[in-house]
Write a structure and sequence with these properties.
globular; 219 residues; 14 strands; five-stranded antiparallel β-sheet; four-stranded antiparallel β-sheet
Length: 219
């Protein structure tokens, strides 16, 4: 077979195959503002030492109780799972996850990602801010290693610790997740997942046709 014909055959494969894998990508989007409205959506799969809390016009997740030091604190945990039908190629994630520092306690938050809900990779950390101030997260840099599966898990660990944190209630409001203000009607969680579907039947036909064409010429 001539080199000219080999190139022509490969060109046919590129025309029929590559565009289909790009243009058929699917995008899943999910977001919420008020965390109270998200609990029945099916994406929060577990919580531990975490409670929804209202403080004036603000709604949020926070620890039920904390500890006097970071070392003796059990974090509040809120775990999400997003199961896709096809392999994930890209993830855009934005989360409201503030920490505060007051006389009665301070907050220290961690955000983890996983492909299986067992092995976790740290995606972000929010250390306690200076006294009397706050710190928030926003856009999350999701590692490439978490984009090669059909499953994406998120786990927020909220540590609130200080002299009054063991009492819970308002004293653990220094470690928050999905802080939402009724007056501002803000988004507190947003995710967009792009997946790559399996090759379509049309793509397979194009590839097989190219191979058949090549073999006929060899014969």
């Amino acid at each position: 077979m001539s080199s000219h014909f080999r190139v022509a055959s490969l060109f046919m494969l590129a025309v029929f195959w590559i565009p289909l894998s790009v243009t058929n990508a699917d995008v899943f989007s999910y977001s919420y503002g008020n965390p109270y409205s998200s609990v029945n959506d099916g994406y929060i799969v577990s919580t531990n030492n975490a409670t929804l809390y209202s403080e004036g016009t603000v709604r949020l997740w926070k620890p039920v109780s904390g500890g006097t030091t970071f070392g003796n604190t059990t974090p509040a945990q809120v775990t999400y799972r997003f199961n896709m039908a096809e392999e994930i190629s890209d993830i855009s994630l934005w989360m409201n996850m503030p920490t505060f520092h007051w006389s009665y306690s301070r907050g220290h938050n961690f955000l983890y990602g996983s492909n299986d809900g067992t092995n976790w990779e740290l995606m972000a950390e929010l250390q306690p801010p200076a006294f009397g101030s706050a710190r928030d997260l926003g856009t999350v840099n999701v590692p490439q290693s978490l984009k090669q599966s059909t499953d994406f898990w998120i786990r927020a660990d909220l540590y609130s610790y200080g002299s009054s944190a063991p009492n819970g209630g308002v004293f653990t409001n220094t470690a928050q997740l999905s802080r939402y203000d009724v007056n501002a009607n803000n988004t507190s969680f947003s995710i967009e997942i792009t997946t790559v579907p399996e090759p379509t039947s049309a793509g397979l036909i194009g590839m097989l046709g190219s191979v058949f064409f090549l073999r006929r010429r060899r014969a």
